[in-house]
Amino acid sequence: MAILNPILTPRRYLTVVLVTVISLHYFLSTSSTEYGHLTSFGTLKEQMHLTSVTTNTSTIALAEPYNHSTALQPVHNNNDTHFSHGRRANATFVFLCRNSDLNGVVSSIVSMEDRFNRAYSYPWVFLNDEEFTEEFKQRVRVLTDAPMSFGVIPREHWVQPDWIDENRARQGRMKLMNQRVIYGGSIPYRNMCRFNSGFFFQHELLQPYRYYWRVEPNVKFFCGLDYDPFLYMEEHDKVYSFTISLLEHQPTVPTLWDSVKEFISEYPYFIEPENAMNFISDDGGEKYNLCHWWSNFEIADMDFWRGEAYTKFFEFLEAKGGFYYERWGDAPVHSIAAALFARKDQIHFFRDIGYRHEDFQHCPSGIQWSAGRCACDPKDTFDYSQASCLPRFEGLFQ
Ligand SMILES: *[C@@H]1O[C@H](CO)[C@@H](O)[C@H](O)[C@H]1NC(C)=O
Ligand SMILES: *[C@@H]1O[C@H](CO)[C@@H](O)[C@H](O)[C@H]1NC(C)=O
Ligand SMILES: *[C@@H]1O[C@H](CO)[C@@H](O)[C@H](O)[C@H]1NC(C)=O
Ligand SMILES: *[C@@H]1O[C@H](CO)[C@@H](O)[C@H](O)[C@H]1NC(C)=O
């Protein structure tokens, strides 16, 4: 999906590491809310060895330090006993994939289960534009006792609508193919972007849930987590989060910003006064700077997408036909909406979640890297490479 090259000079990296370590030290020693139970470096060191509970059948790493006075509640799945902390968020993983993605799906689930979910057993929801095969279900079910459900996407949420002028859409595809834009000629890719923009959170299998963590085939989660990011979202009133931010290919969104500006003037009351406009525009909203959060990783609040502002916004964009006449991605669409309809402090950078989706990765550094026992090279991180929009995000809070 990406064709940009991360550029990170060693000197720049050193500065980044130093600044991160120093500011983290300051942060950890002053904040008691962000890290909950962590109050000083001393306790953090103790936490670095994940506590584990040994049962007769298995040893299970706990995601939080073991508190002997807190009763662990056994969760029964397939009659296997697992331990999980009592309080969980109203949340699920969402995995849009095809039967042919099976090996990549398996590898992503293993990564997520090993590094986070085995201590939580959050459910998995798999969505496909056709029925999952029995082989697919068997091979993913064997990986975990977490509940799993498999759904088919309603046709009208997936295929190119009839009212789209196919001649115009074909011309749009040809144009992007000639410009050698990635997925420029692909209709399925456009279906997927539109589905992820406006429909996944309407799927019946997702109705019971509020927060979701989007997972894709062949992604990697590098670090162990000693807390629950879903609960973090809930407790800190966050609506959207990311690990990587970057620039969109301009030819895929030539008229997107014009539509956004039209929407803003038609529905000014949906714009949050404490918005993150400066993340997506360098001139106060005149032009789109192409920055977006890379949406193949998302932990976010579906009630935000289900709300009035986003519903109207998606309908407005859908009516323009840009998902098919151009190649509007769900990443810029989600990012622009989150930046405009949420408060900037409701958007969160999960700096401590190491994540890779080809061709980029985010790897934490310093104490977060060691505390998370991260299986990635901290020098290999997109954060401050040339095409990264992270400095713009950080600039919002300076
Ligand atoms: C382990 O299993 C044995 C035999 O079934 C039982 O006597 C013992 O209490 C079990 N230990 C724990 C920690 O459950
Ligand atoms: C452990 O749990 C008890 C009871 O819920 C609580 O009072 C105590 O603060 C907890 N200790 C830590 C270190 O979280
Ligand atoms: C699993 O547990 C349920 C509820 O305790 C029980 O009814 C069922 O027979 C068990 N199944 C197996 C295979 O042990
Ligand atoms: C979880 O969130 C969804 C969406 O907001 C809601 O409909 C559902 O009632 C919630 N479930 C629980 C147990 O709170």
UniProtKB/TrEMBL annotation:
Source domain of life: Eukaryota
NAD keyword on record: no
GO cellular component term of the entry, any: membrane
Transmembrane segments: 12-28
GO biological process: cell wall mannoprotein biosynthetic process; protein N-linked glycosylation
Keyword terms, alphabetized: Membrane, Transferase, Transmembrane, Transmembrane helix
Annotated SUPFAM superfamilies: Nucleotide-diphospho-sugar transferases (SSF53448)
Gene3D superfamilies tied to this protein: Spore Coat Polysaccharide Biosynthesis Protein SpsA, Chain A
Record's protein name: Glycosyltransferase family 15 protein
Species for this entry: Mycena rosella
